[in-house]
Amino acid sequence: QLLEAKASLSLAQTQHALQLQQAKAQMNNMVPKKQFEQLQNTLREEQCKTQQLQESLQQQAEQTCRQLVRTQEEHEHLVQAAVEQAEGLERSLRNAEAVLAERAAQLRDAQAQLSRNKLLIEELRGENRRFAMALQAAELKQKSMEEKNQLLEEQASALKQLIGKITPVSLS
């Protein structure tokens, strides 16, 4: 039992010496109380600053997020407006193309009518030339008839005079 007690005592002394060495090592690693308090204050200040920075970053992140949402909504509105404007322009273009096609058809019809009118005018000019020639021939014929009529009137007048001379002579 004495041997066991000595062994236990020796073990306890060794453990105590080891603990003493560890305590001394910790004491050497320890910072003085004043410096520890300064470090604690600095740590608290830095933690405060860190907290404030985190809050500020959080606010900025929220603000940026809201701004991004607004920008996205504005972008969507702009895109929608652009799409509507493009659709309106497409409708206008289709309407203008339809009007142009209609006008082109009208112009083709007018061109065809103009061509027909030119042909009619040429035909009328031809007929007019024929009528002018016929009129000229008729005028010449009328003049010739008037001259013959004049001769006949002169002959009739001469016959009347002759009859006028013969009738009193034959009555007597």
UniProtKB/TrEMBL annotation:
Keywords of the record: Coiled coil, Cytoplasm, Cytoskeleton, Phosphoprotein
Keyword Mitochondrion belongs to the record: no
Presence of the UniProt keyword Phosphoprotein in the record: yes
GO biological processes: microtubule anchoring at centrosome
Record-level GO cellular component terms: centrosome
Coiled coil: 36-165
Localisation: Cytoplasm, Cytoskeleton, Microtubule organizing center, Centrosome
PANTHER family: NINEIN, NINEIN-LIKE PROTEIN
Record protein name field: NINL protein
Gene name tied to this protein: Ninl
